[in-house]
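To the structural biology subgroup,

Please find below the input and predicted structure for Nitro/flavin reductase, which we are adding to the shared reference set this quarter. The sequence is reproduced verbatim from the submission form. If anyone notices a discrepancy with their own records, reply to this email rather than editing the shared folder directly, so we keep one authoritative version.
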Amino acid sequence: MGDSKDLDAKSTPNEALQARYLNNNSNNTPPIDASNPVLETIWRHKSIRHFLPSPLPDDALETLIASAQSASTASMLQTWSVVAVQDPSRKAAAAQLSGNQDFIRQAPLTLFFCADLHRLTNVSEWEGQAGTALEKTDMFIMSTIDAAVAAQNVALAAESLGLGICYVGGARNNAAELCELLALPPRVVALFGMAVGWPDLAAQAPDIKPRLPMQEVLHRERWDGSHQRENVERYNASLGAFYEWHQMFGRHTWAKFVAGMLASGELDGRERIGQVLRDRGFGLQ
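Predicted structure (tokenized):
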């Protein structure tokens, strides 16, 4: 399949963007400014699941968290916190609870980003206020958005330094047990993790996985779903070409994979997250 290829450090930003859409986005591909290192870092993103045992620089953690705190935050409430796990035994325990994924054990650092309404609960009490808004569902939504925005700043900062990252949605597989492992107080829950370390490039192909056509996710002025089936079928073909190029045979189409994943209602334990949130004091009113 000639439209897909591995990308090395010498590939251009234009090649990275073409790989992201597998030439399936010709009408919406933006002009390339090859001198813009931020865009280049963003477009080259890929999840890293093989890490070298090399430690991070001494100030890496603080650099990443400063980047996280430089992100936007709703109403200046700063409703997130992060637990940095570097101890090998605790990291191994967290990996076991988070889908038993070995890359978490390999990476020298795993960050668990948390929705944190505990801090605001305390502040309200210190100021003699009831803090009744903390019982509302929007406060939890706000904290998840804050955490996600902060985490993406960490991802971008890490990759700009030559590090690799992989998000860990498996942190919600055994949410109650992970909260206990991390000693999280009431109204704090780990939403997701992020493994950070030096990529083991010899163990991982330097590829960029394609995404849905931009035409499918970009709606101009008002929603237009008239080409959704066509866009999904185009994506089925492009992702299939990607898998064929990398000799990952026997994969289902994206649509069949998604439909099968959603059919059972079982999400590796994540279907229990609503009860965990209520048990931990999130009102969700």
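Summary notes: The mean pLDDT is 90. The first strand starts at residue 80 and ends at 85.

Regards,
Lab coordination
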